[in-house]
Design goal:
eight-stranded mixed beta sheet, 5 domains, 762 residues, 28% helix, single chain, Immunoglobulin-like, Rossmann fold
Amino acid sequence: MKGRIAIALALLTGLALCRTAGATGILVPEEKELPPLAIKSHRVDVRVEGGVAKTRVSQEFLNSTNRRLEATYIFPLPRDAALTDFAMFINGKRQSGEVVEAERARSIYQDIVRRLRDPGLLEYLDSGLLRMKVFPIEPNSVTEVAVSYAHALPFESGVYEYTFPLKTGHRASRVLEDHTVGVEIASQQPIKSVYSPTHDVGVTRKDDHHAIAGFEQSGVCLDTDFTLFYTVSREDFGLNLLTHRREGEDGYFAVMISPRVEVEQRDVMPKDVCLVIDTSGSMGERDRIGSAREAVKFCLRALNAGDRFAVVTFSTGVEVFGEGLTQATPEAVDEAVAHVEGLEARGGTDLCGAVLKALEMAPDSERPYLVLLATDGKPTVGVDKPDEIVSKVEEANRRNVRVFTFGIAEDLNVLLLDRIAEMTRGYSEYVAPGREIEARISGLFRKLSNPVLSDLRIAYGDVRVADVCPQRVPDLFRGSQVVAFGRYSGSGDVAVELTGRVANGGGKGGRRRFAYDARFPKSSAANDFLPQLWARRKIGYLLDQIRLHGEQQELTDEVVRLSKEYGIATPYTSYLVLEDEEAYRRHGIVRGEALARLRREGVVRARTPAEPAVEAARAAARADLAEQQTLFSTMAGAMEAPAGGGRKAITLRGSVRRLKEAEAVAADAGLLQATVRRAAGRTFALVGGAYVDTAFTEEMELLQIKWGSDAYFALWDALPELREALTLGESVVIVVDGKALVVSDEGQEETTAGEIRAFFGD
């Protein structure tokens, strides 16, 4: 199933989204019958210093015709960017180009939108542009165009925002080869969080004043603008807020928390670590025991001087190395390493006894106590009923110990290990035998080695927050950051309080309080990615509760509601993947009478099948989601997994976790682009080539505007709050104050912004 999902996603991305060219910098031939040239490679290098970004973009364009061409290169400037310098190059030679201010650039963008029939380009309608003539472009050749420019970054409340324009709606350019973005940041003030809500970036921090963020892809669509936030603060712990709110509705927020990178050892909390290793006979298969030995030896050698450790092994019985928790002196670590090297695989699996022994050894102190459990099987000795094991672990965990579980085989009790990790606020991982075990366990331990703030709690003053994901804020470790999403009501300037336990060094032991100024606005159009990210996390949390504890009508109903409202396909809403009028009616997404009227008006037409490969990919994706729903129905909450169910359970868990931990809109490979979309605070269903507002009813008065006409662009000015919806496609039906705006190939071609506003009562 997992492989088929990946194939379906690749086809949907490669075929359904990447039909015509038109992206960041585009090279448009003078011959109007030709589309923009294909982009062979696309590289963006950014250097940010003192809040000023210097960007260089280098693109290679492929002329696949047998003719010499003349073309115009057009590059949309970041909105509201004040350029301090720019240069343009063709094949390495500096050329003259011009900066076209937004007012003059508007007519150029309008012509391009009409010519390419791509409403996604409307997003740049109010932006300036760089323009340059390119000639000659030789037949069957590659032309390199490079642009460099500098501009000051927007800055508010300790947050800098960098945006590079990539998005072109549903007809994005496909980069034939490599696409890379790299951002180097240098700041006089200490850098705290570095976060992209649009792309899955890697972040490297060498000290508090420098950071590098970026990603590298191949053969991808340029369908999402790249946005990067970074925060600065001289506080030990940075806390910054991003908000989005439509007038009259509850808002969305993201809170970013991060410590200093350069942390003195006295500020690192000493910890106690219990390493629990399965040495049952099955661990001898594929040398799982050998990989586990190497991982545990790494953890032992990575302990800090003030740490304590214990090693617990279990098979038919449970054994503890030494006398329990031992100070991590070099001599003690060497003895423990020698002990681990001698471990052999034999006997049964007393998993319950091992976990209870680890919890029993937890000291009565404020030091973090972590348990790392590595096992490849199911309990076979002692208490072997999963429900009973969970109950005993919950009862024994009186000191809120974190248990991190590592499953080393596929056919094991996934739900049992996940329940133990969830209940103890730990984390679960499943790895293949071999070096992956060492890499995963050592990678997690490296992160856990330097805790700087534990037992975090956040108070938001007089503003009421709800549905925060994750519900419990995880501990902070050196070099880590936490991003949480939630909803809020109320507004105003408040003091956000962060409390947590810190190290005992420097006379600052115990629990500390940190206060930050924050503003929750009544309305804000910024950060419009927040609703989608919050919904993904919320749905992921609900699906995880169903997976762990079984199906409940209240939970499944909420998954379906959020899925339909935010256009997120889930195992319970697989019908969102395909355009299916009957499913829309059956599930209450659109009304049949409303569609009948739109069909009479010529807005909704008979569905035209997509390319066969696209149709097949969509059908396969829908089938896979339906199969996942079957797994939920048969396996959710079932502690006694059926034979061979381990692999399916791991796959299901992975799909849910991608939603539950989503931080970037474009990074979620497990989420399909649904035919039900969320835009401008409304929900739209794709029917017969038109995106129809699900609030539309057949009796509504219509204002019909012809796509691409002067009236269409007047609409862009008249109702700016609808711009996101207008970029969905060439045919859109939008409900505004009980009336309907219809954009299609038929309708008025001449009208003014004032007349449009008057129709809707403004």
